[in-house]
Amino acid sequence: MAYIGNWPTTVGFKTVNFKTESTTKVTTSQSGRTIRVSVAGSRFSATVKYPSITLANFKPIQAIATRCKGPLNSFDITLPSISYNSNGATYGLTATVNDTASTQGATSINISTNKNSQTILYAGDVIKFASHSKVYMITGNVTTNGAGGATLTIEPALFEDVADGSSVTVDAVPFRMRLQRDIQEFKYDTDGTASYEIDMIEEQ
């Protein structure tokens, strides 16, 4: 498998159905008691639908979908609304890890920022650390202290250790995805337009 680059953004999506996927093993005893155990970290997936678009704009999309070879190869995609923090692009937030204990399995990470005494991220915003491609969701509002420090609470837990001083992407967060189906169907209409719907899931 290989990483093949960024998904084209020339044409916007009509709809994005965004999902969180978690795998939980449920065992039920004869008495009816259930035991639930998480057996894999959560990951994100999406079904993305395009409007009818001209063939000139559609064919680059068809080309990268074909290069994906079904679920084999991966790409980065920035999802409208979902990838962007609640304060907006003009907010100018920058953040770095300020924590020597940000190890695999942690759900709480200390950061340093350029914003003092402000709510910088909100529950439901997403972030990414420089060291790996996994995207994490913020689970509680993040407010900095007078020195710009704050603590992130995230889900899922860290997939990998994160080094002190690593940068944190807090806006226009790219998801590293792969297609979910072996067969991709491209709809060509008689009016000279085409449409396409994609099922994709985060690479892990």
Structure description:
With 204 residues, this protein is mostly beta strands. It has 2 domains: 1-25 and 37-83 and 174-204, Phosphorylase Kinase, domain 1 (2-Layer Sandwich), CATH 3.30.200; 85-173, Beta Barrel (Elongation Factor Tu (Ef-tu), domain 3). 6% of the residues lie in helices and 44% in strands. It is built from 1 helix and 16 strands. The chain has one helix at residues 55-67, and strands at residues 3-6, 15-28, 34-49, 53-54, 74-77, 95-97, 108-113, 119-121, 126-129, 135-138, 142-143, 149-155, 167-169, 175-179, 186-188, 193-202. The strands form 3 sheets. Strands 1, 2, 3, 4, 5, 14, 15 and 16 form an 8-stranded mixed beta sheet that branches. Strands 6-7-12-10-9-13 form a 6-stranded antiparallel β-barrel. The longest helix has 13 residues, at 55-67. The protein is globular, with a radius of gyration of 20 Å. The chain starts with a strand and ends with a strand.
